């Protein structure tokens, strides 16, 4: 039975969504095409009707999940971002959490096409955070950008380090608590020195 163009597009989007979650849970190398298609409810043979290779799907799924993460960040102020990102819920929600924290290590060993998708996602996230920074209009552009790189790197690093510990390890929580407190304190100091907020 022939599938309509609209249904074929819906099927492709479903495969991408499924892949995005599985890749974040298991890593790029932890998911085979057959397992991925089975999880999406399709046969292995149907994969190549939609994608030229697994690498093509990896890039598309990553871009998709990075876009979703960015949309979530756009709805938050800086403190809201810190509260949600550097949290136990995010740490434990691998399949639904940030693609950066889940897959940056994997992406570093992938082709440039996939690295480019991550670089674009990082750049867009930095720009979005910079727009939310209350001290950004008064800061030199290089300083404002450096501050956002530092904050985002600390947030991503906190999740990666915490996830590397056993789930019930006190260190897993300590890493999150320390990084959350330091990031919050840093934002508070910056807000207090911002003349528009004083």
From TrEMBL:
PROSITE patterns: HTH_TETR_2
Superkingdom: Bacteria
Residues in HTH tetR-type domain copies: 9-69
DNA-binding region boundaries: 32-51
Assigned keywords, A-Z: DNA-binding, Transcription, Transcription regulation
A Pfam family per the record: TetR_N
Annotated GO MF terms: DNA binding
Alphabetical list of PANTHER family matching this protein: TRANSCRIPTIONAL REGULATORY PROTEIN
The protein, known as: TetR family transcriptional regulator
Species of the source: Pseudomonas taetrolens
